[in-house]
Design goal:
heterodimer; A: 112 residues; four-stranded antiparallel beta sheet; B: four-stranded antiparallel beta sheet; globular
């Protein structure tokens, strides 16, 4: 139980375009999901907390207009990186809260 | 504010010998503490968690950790390393007061197993 999926697992996009990453809780409902980013050989940094039916709460230093988060249902949260630039290239990981937090496998974004 | 410090960025041990990965935490409230493992190109897997029950916590794959409040430590140990243990390990803290469920990750410890 408590499986979280992410789609896509990896994506390459051109600078200036937008890309959407999906996070799904497959066998439980999650009112709260979290988005993290991980740079190579570094730790995970929390970007935002996504609450179903309300606006996301962003951590300090994270641009909410650049990283759009939508949590429209109890099993799906999406992260859209708008006008992506090479410095946005990273590993994006979501987690969904059940009794604990369960992590998705991550999405590797490369912006060329 | 909460934080964790993983004292070693890289640990190497021989197969069959004990593993010790060190973690110190700082928390304003009663913390929950976790150890996660991340294998290359894989997602994070929870090894074990401490949530104010028994101070010695047993996890999966033979790992265990002991919560020591006086030392603000939560070190991860395993009696005998296996090649499959080679991975990145993260110590994580969460303040449990007021339902704060934000996880704060340490910088990670890369465990290498020598054959």
């Amino acid at each position: 139980g408590a499986v979280v999926s992410q789609h896509p697992s990896w994506v390459i996009c051109k600078s200036g375009t937008s890309v959407k990453i999906e996070c799904r809780s497959l066998d439980f409902q999650a009112t709260t999901m979290f988005w993290y980013r991980q740079f190579p050989k570094q730790s995970l940094m929390l970007m935002a907390t996504s609450n179903e039916g309300s606006k996301a709460t962003y951590e300090q230093g994270v641009e909410k207009d650049k990283f759009l988060i939508n949590h429209a249902s109890l099993t799906l949260s999406t992260l859209t990186v708008t006008s992506a630039h090479p410095e946005d290239s990273s590993f994006y990981i979501c987690s969904a809260k059940d009794v604990g937090q369960y992590f998705g496998p991550g999405t590797r974004l490369t912006v060329t | 504010a909460q934080s964790v410090t993983q004292l070693d960025s890289h640990v190497s041990v021989s197969e069959g010998t004990p593993v010790l990965l060190r973690c110190n935490y700082s928390s304003s409230y009663s913390p929950s503490l976790f150890w996660y493992v991340q294998h290359p190109n894989k997602g994070l897997q929870l090894l074990l968690k401490y949530t104010s029950a028994a101070t010695l916590v047993k996890g999966i794959n033979g790992f265990e950790a002991e919560f020591k409040k006086s030392e603000t430590s939560f070190h991860l140990t395993k009696p005998s390393a296996h090649m499959s243990d080679a991975a990145e390990y993260f110590c994580v803290v969460s303040d449990t007061n007021f339902g704060n469920e934000k996880l704060t990750f340490g910088t990670g410890t890369r465990l290498t197993i020598i054959p």
